Each structure stands twice: as structure tokens, then as C-alpha cells.
């Protein structure tokens, strides 16, 4: 089970359409299957993969397990064993399917290139890396560190994204492109955060213990941003491209530069992770 986050970072997981999580999952699963059926006609050459990955599966959890196994299975841990491992994690953790649904919906809402659920489900590295991390995270908290680290290693090798299985990540998280993303062991990421390519959430120096960033809800981490050390990025904040953050970031501000400093203030109701707007804004700055 994923441990409970600190109160300021506790994931809230609201329903997608004022319905239960189960209903939301059923809606997404039904739409994904409909898209898969249409794709069979659109691209017959890919029909076998779509049939096996989605239409032959009985649930979204089974489909995720099958797809992840085919992308992460290797000579050390065969696809069949990886599928069983992924499915065990999704079925044992009651939050896993709800998280996966919100992660998938987040991509659909925030990525202008995404026009259907099928595309990120089959092809997007960020979604695959995040759901595979969730499998590793479950393993880590089952005391199966060796397998958890194997999953981390495969995520890094296949998707170019390194997420420690002990990190704590909420739902509705969008990892765009994923290439070069590094998330350290004691990192905590709340719900509805957007992370672009080459972002590092790392340590600062050789200290041990709790040494990685805490990212609050609704934060946008732009391309190449580096947040280093046990510091907090406040809710609704925006970290500009290539910024190097070494101190706490106040909520609802934009920080930029090396080292990063506040360059503008944002309205309290603005959610940069949802709008994906990477401009600095017209705040007063400090």
C-alpha cells in the first residue's frame, strides 16, 4: 500500500464526473475499448497487438499489466512473470486503478496532441513509466526491494526515466515525454502535477535520510528544471525551464533562473499544471 502523505501533500483524488471512482474507471475503460475497435479498422497491420493488449483483456488493470509486461519483460524477468507481477500490484492496491485512470485522463486533458486514450495507453513513455513505478512502489512496500529495483532499472532502460520505487507520487500526474526525468528516493509529489522532460527532483550533497523535494498539488515543472534538496515547492507554483531550485518556492509563484528566484506571482486560483502555460506572467516579482 502507498503510505499516507503528509497533510499538506495528501492526494485528494476527486471523481472525474462527480461519480464514483469505479464508475470513472468503467467509463474510461469503455471508451478505450471503443477506440481500440475503431483502430482495428484504421490499421489492420496493428490489429493483433490492439486485440491482445486491450480487447482480449477483461479490465483496465489487466490491460495495463499486459502492456507493461510486453514493454518491460526481458531475459531476466520474462514477460509472463512481469505480467503476473504487474497484475498482482494493481489488484492488491485499491488505489492503483484509480491512480491509473486519473493519470490517463490527465494526459488527455493537458496534452494537445492527445486526441484519444488509446495513444498514450499504447505509446506514451511517461504514462508507462509512471504506472510501472506504481508496480515497483507496491513491491518496495511489500519488502521486495530486489524486484522493485529491477522494475526501476527496466523503466530507466526502456523509457529513459529514473523513478526510485520509494518515492511517493499522487494521482493525475502528467510526465510529458519522460526522457531524462529523475525522481529521487524521498521525493513526494502530490496530485495534479505536470512534469516535462529532463526534470530532476534530486538530492543536494551527500546527506542521507529525507533529502529530496516535496512537490505540492498543481505544480508545473518545466523543461529541464532541477529541484535539489529537501525543499518544498508550494501549491500552484511554476518552475520555469532550466531553473535550478535550491530553496523553498512559495505557493502560486513563478521561479526562474540559476539559482532560481521568484519572478512573478500567480492568482491563487490558477493551476499551471493544468494549463501547461510556461510563460513567466506579469506579476510584481520580488
From TrEMBL:
<dbReference type="InterPro" id="IPR010493">
    <property type="entry name" value="Ser_AcTrfase_N"/>
</dbReference>
<dbReference type="InterPro" id="IPR045304">
    <property type="entry name" value="LbH_SAT"/>
</dbReference>
<keyword id="KW-0808">Transferase</keyword>
<dbReference type="Pfam" id="PF06426">
    <property type="entry name" value="SATase_N"/>
</dbReference>
<dbReference type="GO" id="GO:0009001">
    <property type="term" value="F:serine O-acetyltransferase activity"/>
</dbReference>
<feature type="region of interest" description="Disordered">
    <location>
        <begin position="1"/>
        <end position="21"/>
    </location>
</feature>
<dbReference type="InterPro" id="IPR005881">
    <property type="entry name" value="Ser_O-AcTrfase"/>
</dbReference>
<dbReference type="InterPro" id="IPR053376">
    <property type="entry name" value="Serine_acetyltransferase"/>
</dbReference>
<protein>
    <recommendedName>
        <fullName>Serine acetyltransferase</fullName>
    </recommendedName>
</protein>
<keyword id="KW-0028">Amino-acid biosynthesis</keyword>
<keyword id="KW-0012">Acyltransferase</keyword>
<dbReference type="InterPro" id="IPR011004">
    <property type="entry name" value="Trimer_LpxA-like_sf"/>
</dbReference>
<dbReference type="InterPro" id="IPR042122">
    <property type="entry name" value="Ser_AcTrfase_N_sf"/>
</dbReference>
<feature type="domain" description="Serine acetyltransferase N-terminal">
    <location>
        <begin position="28"/>
        <end position="132"/>
    </location>
</feature>
Amino acid at each position: 500500500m502507498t503510505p499516507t502523505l503528509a497533510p499538506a501533500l495528501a492526494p485528494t483524488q476527486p471523481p472525474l464526473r462527480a461519480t464514483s471512482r469505479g464508475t470513472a474507471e468503467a467509463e474510461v475503460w469503455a471508451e478505450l475499448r471503443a477506440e481500440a475497435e475503431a483502430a482495428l479498422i484504421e490499421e489492420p497491420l496493428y490489429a493483433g497487438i490492439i486485440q491482445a493488449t486491450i480487447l482480449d483483456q477483461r479490465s483496465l488493470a489487466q490491460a495495463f499489466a499486459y502492456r507493461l509486461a510486453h514493454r518491460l519483460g526481458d531475459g531476466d524477468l520474462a514477460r509472463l512473470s512481469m505480467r503476473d507481477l504487474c497484475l498482482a500490484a494493481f489488484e492488491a492496491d485499491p488505489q492503483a486503478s484509480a491512480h491509473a485512470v486519473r493519470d490517463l485522463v490527465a494526459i488527455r486533458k493537458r496534452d494537445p496532441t492527445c486526441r484519444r486514450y488509446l495513444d498514450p495507453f499504447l505509446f506514451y513513455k511517461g504514462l508507462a513509466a509512471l504506472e510501472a513505478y506504481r508496480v515497483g512502489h507496491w513491491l518496495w512496500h511489500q519488502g521486495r526491494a530486489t524486484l522493485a529495483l529491477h522494475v526501476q532499472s527496466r523503466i530507466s532502460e526502456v523509457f529513459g526515466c529514473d523513478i526510485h520505487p520509494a518515492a511517493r507520487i499522487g494521482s493525475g500526474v502528467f510526465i510529458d515525454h519522460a526522457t531524462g526525468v529523475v525522481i529521487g528516493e524521498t521525493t513526494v509529489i502530490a496530485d495534479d502535477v505536470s512534469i516535462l522532460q529532463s526534470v530532476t527532483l534530486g538530492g543536494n550533497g551527500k546527506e542521507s535520510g529525507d533529502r529530496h523535494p516535496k512537490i505540492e498539488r498543481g505544480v508545473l515543472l518545466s523543461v529541464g528544471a532541477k529541484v535539489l534538496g529537501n525543499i518544498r515547492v508550494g501549491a500552484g507554483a511554476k518552475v520555469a525551464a532550466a531553473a535550478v531550485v535550491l530553496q523553498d518556492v512559495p505557493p502560486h509563484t513563478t521561479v526562474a533562473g540559476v539559482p532560481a528566484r521568484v519572478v512573478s506571482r500567480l492568482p491563487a486560483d490558477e493551476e499551471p499544471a493544468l494549463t501547461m502555460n510556461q510563460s513567466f506572467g506579469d506579476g510584481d516579482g520580488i
